[in-house]
Design brief:
Shape: elongated
Structural class: alpha+beta
Distance between the termini: 45 Å
Strand content: 15-25%
Oligomer: single chain
Number of strands: 3
Largest sheet: 3 strands, antiparallel
Radius of gyration: 18 Å
Number of domains: 1
Helix content: 40-55%
Order of helices and strands: EEEH
Strand order of the largest sheet: 1-2-3
Length: about 60
């Protein structure tokens, strides 16, 4: 890639007419239902909890 090449990094998040969340990036987009969003949130919480526990044990 050339150093002067323009790289678009804008991310758009919106709700489609049929009620799905859409995460749109220059390389493509992802459509998520409410259940999918909750699943992602649960996974992120589990990862956060795991990392927090690991950091806590490393500090002790």
């Amino acid at each position: 890639m050339k150093p002067d090449a323009h790289i678009e990094t804008e991310t758009k998040v919106y709700t489609s007419e049929d009620g799905h969340a859409v995460i749109e990036q220059p390389a493509g987009s992802v459509r998520l239902s409410a259940e999918d969003i909750l699943a992602v949130i649960r996974e992120l919480q589990a990862c956060y909890d795991y990392c927090a526990a690991w950091r806590q044990s490393a500090q002790e």
